[in-house]
Amino acid sequence: MKLFKFTAAFLLMLLLGAPLAEGSSIDGLSFEDPVLEDRYRTLLESFRCPVCQNTSLAGSDAPTARDLRQRVYQMLSEGRTDTEIRDWISARYGDFVLYSPPVRGPTLVLWLGPLGLLLVACLVLWRVLGRQAKA
Amino acid sequence: MRTRPLYFLPLALLLVLGAALALRILDPEAADRALRPMLGKQIPVLDLPVLGDPARTVGPQDYVGDWLLVNLWGSWCAPCRDEHGELMRVSLEEHIPILGVNTWDTYEAAQGFLNELGNPYTQVGFDVDGLARLELAVTGVPETLLVDAGGLVVVHHVGPLTRDLFERDFRAHLIP
Lengths: 135, 176
Hints:
Chain A is an all-alpha fold. Chain A is built from five helices and no strands. In chain A, helix 2 (34-45) runs antiparallel to helix 3.
């Protein structure tokens, strides 16, 4: 019973704490409009920080990351589209900072390679099974 | 059961895919390009207030027709202090203008730094709102760009400049 009470209290605490965490802003920048705020956060998560390369733009403390966050915030406030913002950043820092790089040129191997492999594997499996059924 | 050549196709494809990815990952040039995003691009037009004379503005476009070094620095930055001697040498011995772009800084601190250590720059632009450092796609300071007469970035060097690095990466592009 004690354990139950403890667990319930813990869950309640998490539940109450969640909106607080959700409401916290990065660099003190946040949008009143929840749709814009959501786009802002999604965009920041979709870029790699060019300085700390294993961190997203949202999670990096590097001054350049702060610059880029402010720029994304500003462009969103000006009513620019997600695509325009992505293009602006990749025009400067390259495809390298996009967590999902565009499908073109050398990145085709990344996108289509595994799919091609799966297709070939299916083809082989199909032929093998067909042969065994016949035998 | 006889071994059919077709069975080895997925394995062969996997090896090809692996090799293609490994080539990119292990290619130091490719990794290099990712960290030097300005390489091979046109240097952007910038209108930066001139340090010490903010009524006037300066930018790389003022130097079109000449080769140009663009050096990003801040007075607070220790590696900038380290490379300052080399920049002074370049300003005296090499026939190439150096445009300084002072960023993440204040007028006073920047001026103090140059008064203390000497001024190697042909001109210094002050990056007021941080726009220049984003337009030049820097990841920090110091960074040095070598721009050809047509405004194309030929070298994008990240980190402090040294005599050795200058000889290795910049010298070949310069007219003796």
